[in-house]
Write a structure and sequence with these properties.
Elements (H helix, E strand, L loop, with lengths): L7 E7 L4 H19 L4 E3 L10 E7 L5 H9 L7 E6 L5 E4 L4 H14 L2
Parallel strand pairs: 1-3, 2-3
Antiparallel strand pairs: 1-4, 4-5
Helix pairs in contact: 1-3
């Protein structure tokens, strides 16, 4: 995935069988889908090229042995799940470990939108 033109992206690390993750993931997904429904350029990234102007949103399995996922988790020192990262082109990464409340999810996604301008 080329990220040269990406101004912000959001990554969630979660694991199957993690109770907090199972609670958080659908709430986080609803938050993202709410933004998409209202015209936000958020994009559920699965694979391939990232369209220009969008905010890729990734849900990653923290238990994966995929070298790229392991490297990303190590790079951002993910030590607890769920963990949510906001990466932007103009600020330090924001890492929140643990499930966020819905208003905090909204605030994080709003920050991703601001960074995407």
């Amino acid at each position: 995935m080329s990220l040269e033109h990406v101004k912000s992206m959001v990554i969630v690390f979660a694991m199957p069988g993690c109770g907090a993750c199972e609670d958080y993931k659908p709430r986080f997904e609803r938050g993202v889908n709410h933004f998409i429904k209202h015209g936000a350029p958020m994009y559920w990234y699965r694979s391939g090229a990232v369209p220009h102007g969008v905010i890729p949103v990734l849900m990653l399995n923290a238990a994966s042995t995929d070298p790229q996922i392991v490297e990303l988790a190590e790079q951002y020192a993910i030590s607890a799940v769920p963990a949510t990262l906001l990466l932007t082109h103009n600020a330090k990464p924001i890492k929140i470990e643990g499930a966020m409340a819905d208003p905090d999810v909204h605030e994080l996604l709003s920050s991703a939108m601001l960074a995407n301008r």
